[in-house]
Amino acid sequence: QRRDPTLRGLLERAHFVVKLGLGEAQTGAKLEATIFDGLADVAGRNFGSTLEAKVRAAGTAGGAVRALVSAVPRGVPVALLVDEYDHAIIQDVSEGEWGAAKSGIKALRSLMMATKAPDVDVRIERCIVTGVARFARTSLFSGANNFSDLTNDPLLSRAIGFSEAELRATFPAELERLACTLQTDTNGAVTELASWYNGYCFDGASSCFNPFPVDRKS
């Protein structure tokens, strides 16, 4: 399949991926602990209990990131993916829990600013932060001005999820099995998948399938 030159090799080089899902934290007061748990879990699974303990013992979320990243072999780029960064803070704001919200903001600021530290910045090649609230540079994370807003960037639509063409090219056998189950043909199977999982759009033009449910459905 023809490569999209605008992706500029984004998906071609292997990275050490650190995924932090912060949606489990229901309040900003618990957000720092959720960050520590996520980073320590990555450290333990990949480097063992000694590094896991070192990450947990770090004084700040930023310090925990530094401890983990420093263990990744030199020459291996790191990708930090942070999902639902705003969930706990939105919960607190909606309930008027301003103290908890401020605690969450401090934890997130420590995490984000760690990506600018000289010894960490050169190691983290990609840092993607997702949530439903717009990233506020001037107040919520003052100083983290090295982030770019990709919300409406056409690049995002081509890098995340599956297009219909990619789905057909990558999963032909799975589509045939699904078609058999549904007593239809491949086109019918794709139409059924689209009714459930298509429609994600970031640039107003290109739509994509959510990759996780598509994999389960097939």
Write a structural description.
With 218 residues, the chain is mainly alpha-helical. It has 11 helices and 5 strands, in the order βαααβαααβααααββα. A 3-stranded parallel sheet has the order 1-2-3. A two-stranded antiparallel ribbon has the order 4-5. A hairpin with a 5-residue loop joins strand 4 and strand 5. Helix 1 packs parallel to helix 3. The longest helix is centred in the first third of the chain and has 17 residues. The chain is globular, with a radius of gyration of 20 Å.
Key words describing this protein structure:
5 strands; three-stranded parallel sheet; mainly alpha; two-stranded antiparallel ribbon; 11% strand; globular; 218 residues
Strand content: 5-15%
Strand sequence of the main sheet, in spatial order? 1-2-3
Could you give the count of β-strands?
A: 5
On the 0 to 100 scale, the average pLDDT is 83
How widely separated are the two ends?
21 Å
Brief sketch in words of this structure:
The chain is mainly alpha-helical and 218 residues long. The protein has helices at residues 31-47, 49-56, 61-71, 87-94, 98-114, 118-121, 154-159, 164-170, 172-182, 186-197, 211-217, and strands spanning 16-21, 78-83, 124-130, 200-201, 207-208.
Blueprint of the fold:
Layout: E1 16-21, H1 31-47, H2 49-56, H3 61-71, E2 78-83, H4 87-94, H5 98-114, H6 118-121, E3 124-130, H7 154-159, H8 164-170, H9 172-182, H10 186-197, E4 200-201, E5 207-208, H11 211-217
Parallel strand pairs: 1-2, 2-3
Antiparallel strand pairs: 4-5
Helix pairs in contact: 1-2, 1-3, 2-3, 3-5, 4-5, 9-10
